[in-house]
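Title: Comparing notes on inverse folding

I've been comparing how different people in this forum approach sequence design from structure. To keep things fair, I'm posting one structure and asking everyone to reply with a full sequence. Here's the target:
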């Protein structure tokens, strides 16, 4: 959405066991399909467009389910790798087992 908004937006995702799954079910068929997609992605990454590299990241690139905090962390880790900077540490999600625990000091 290309809009300015003063406030917060909260989105909830609910899983269900009915209908077509939104994310790949980890089975042999999907693993084989992912291997095919991964080879295609690697070929695309070898190309460059006017010196710009192409990167695949996130749920579709990994062909597996990520919680949103994991998807953001995945993208930030790739950015850190590309830029050659230390990985970014995220606070645990409010509903994670780590929530509320004291952070370790570096």
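Reply #1:
Here's my take.
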């Amino acid at each position: 959405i290309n809009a300015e908004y003063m406030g917060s937006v909260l989105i909830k995702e609910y899983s269900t066991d009915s209908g077509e799954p939104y994310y790949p079910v980890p089975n042999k068929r999907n693993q084989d399909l992912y291997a095919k997609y991964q080879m295609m992605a690697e070929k695309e990454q070898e190309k460059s467009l006017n010196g710009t590299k192409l990167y695949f990241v996130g749920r579709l690139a990994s062909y597996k389910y990520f919680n949103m905090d994991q998807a953001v962390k995945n993208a930030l880790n790739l950015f850190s790798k590309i830029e050659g900077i230390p990985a970014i540490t995220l606070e645990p999600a409010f509903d994670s087992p780590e929530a509320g625990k004291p952070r370790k000091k570096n």
